[in-house]
Each structure stands twice: as structure tokens, then as C-alpha cells.
Amino acid sequence: MNSSLREAGISRQFSLRDTFISLKYPNYRLWFIGQLVSLVGTWTQATAQGYLIYELTKSPAYLGYASFASGLPSWFFTLYAGAIADRVPRRTLMVITQCTMLVLAFILAILSFSNVIQWWHILILAFLMGVCNAFDAPARQAFVLEMVEREDLTNAIALNSTMFNSALVLGPAIGGLIYAWVGPGWCFTINGISFIAVIIALLLMKLKPFVPLIRKGNTLSDVREGLKYVVNNPTLRMLIFNLFIITVFGFGVATLIPAWAVEVLGGDARTNGFLLAARGSGSLIGSLSVAAMGRIQFRGKLLTVNSFLMPIMMIVFAYMHWLIPSLLAMVGVGFALMMILNLSNAMVQTRIPDEMRGRVMGIYTFFFFGGIPIGSLIAGWAAEIIGEPLTVIISAVILFLFALIVFWRIPAMRAME
Length: 417
Description:
Helix content is 81%, strand content 0%.
């Protein structure tokens, strides 16, 4: 291949025109719009919920408890849910989970408006919401290939993160302002209403008829088959374990943001919303970057670079005690984290056969969502004892050392396409 052809190939890989190529599919357009509205509501509630439990308890440990309660169901249900996602229509499964989450959001709103809400109400409802997410996530991950063609899968995954992070910019800002203006009840109400958008979008889609694969065993045997497949595949095993470590020590410290807003920056609910929105802005830039490079051939190198960038930005954030520098550092953290998540997801999904997709993504989701409550619990406990800044610094050092070990001992990671 001559240099002009190489340049043409590179320009195609980084084509801005192709950044939103998945939106050419009608089903994906419905999904994108519905999910975007719903996710804005989700982040509006998450922002209000975190600040509310901190306001009720004045303890960063309870921030960890709330996140732990939300993530705990993933340990018990996600692997089973991944097998279910290979057996039943994924759209039907998601409509059920979205309707259930709608009801839970309205219950939280009613408790808040009635002025009877207690910290344990939040923990119970967070756990029930986590059960819904445990069944929803594997179906949602595997559903992408039902809406787009395989060659646009990486782009669709990146655009999924783009909508997620657009919501992460808007939702916390909206949640922080509404919380300060009229209280948390309206934040929870907005989330309940927002679920209607994704339910309607799912029902309007024109999908190919679902043809379940013929299974010889039961659901538990499907789960064992999926686990065996991942264990015997060194590439998948390595990608998922790498993601788990980053989730535990990267996502865990995000739980401390409400306490950070008050104790470190001397702010309030609005400060909390701005910090989360800054993280979302960085994540949005990262998502769009991956979308624009949908068919790149050096994903491993990008993953490696961002595995070092993320802990560096976390350390910078830990030393920033003023709002504007803190927001800029949080943008950097969000960018690196989302690059890692998007690239990991794409590298896993492009390496699994369709008949294993639901189960493998169930395992992927198990370690991703399973790592969040562990990290949140550790971060909450540590912050209670040694303070928020030192907790973030220690987490960042662990991530940096882990990235160094992967770079040195597993060169195959950065060589991946």
C-alpha cells in the first residue's frame, strides 16, 4: 500500500462524518433518543440521591453503602440474566425492567414529598433498582447488534457512551439545581417520567423476529458454558480483569463526590452537580473520540495510554481545593475513564460469537457492575478514616502501579486491534 492510500485510510478512520454513522439505522435512532432522555433522568436522580443520603447522615461511608446496595444485585443476578438474554427477546426483557424502574423512582419521589424519607429507604430502593439493572444491562449490551450491522458495532457502542455521558453532563447539573431550588422529590419525579421515553422507543422499533437458539441444557448450564468460554479465552479474560481493577479503584472514588463538594470545596448540592457534570463532559469527549475512530486498528495502545492518564488526573484532582481547577481535573478523569470503558467494551464485543453474546456480556457486566460496589465500599470506609483526598491518592497510585504491571508483563494488551 503506498503512502497516499495509507493517508486515505487514516483519514477514513478519523472521519468526523462517520462519528454518528449508527444513526442511519432507524431502530438505533429511536434507541438513542429514548435512552438519552431516560439517562438524563437517571443522572438527575443519582445526583439527588447521593446528596440526600449525605445530607441525612453527614457520613461519606453512607455514600459507599448506597452505591454498594445498588451494585450488590449484580453479583447474584447478572450471570443468570446474561443467559436469560440469550433465551428471550431482549426488547421484552428491557421493557419489563424499565417499567419496574419507573415505579421505583416514583416510590422514592412519594417518600421524599411526604417528608418521611430515611437513609434506609434509599438503601432498599437502591438495591431494588440494582436488581433491575442486573437484568437490564446484559440485554442492553447484547441488544446493540440487533439495531446495527456488525461493521458499525464499535461506533454504536461509542455512541451509546456518548448518550450516557451527554446525560452525565446534563443530569447532574439539572439535579443539583433542582435539588437546591425545590428539593430532591422533583429530581426523582423527573427520572420516573423519563423512563417513558425509552419504553416508547423500544415498543416502536421494527426488529427481526426473535429466534431463540436451541439449548440442550438449562439456564444454569448456559451460565457455566459462558464462564468456561471466557476462562478459556485469554484475551477476553485479560480485558475483563483489567476492567474490573479499573472499576474498583476508579469508579469507587466517584462515590465520594457529594462529600468532596462539601468537605473539600466548601460547596453545596450545586457544587456536587457541577463536579459530576465536569466528569461527564470529559467522558463525552472521550466517547465522541472513540466514535470518530470507529474502525481504528490500535485500540490496545489507546487503552494503555489512558490507563496511565486516568490515575495521573486523579492525583491532580486530589490536590485541587478550588472549584475551577477541580472541574478541569475531573474533565481529565472522565475522559480517560470513558476511553478505557469504550475501548474495553468494543474489544470484547468484536471477539465473541453471536450465540455467546448475551452470556459473555453478562460476565462482562458482572465484573463491571460488581466492581463498583466493592470500590464504593472501600472508598467510603477509607474516606471516613483518612479523608477524601488521601483516599483518592491511594486509589490512583494502585491504578498506576497496575497499569505499569500490565504494560511490562502483558505486552499483548497494547498490541490488540
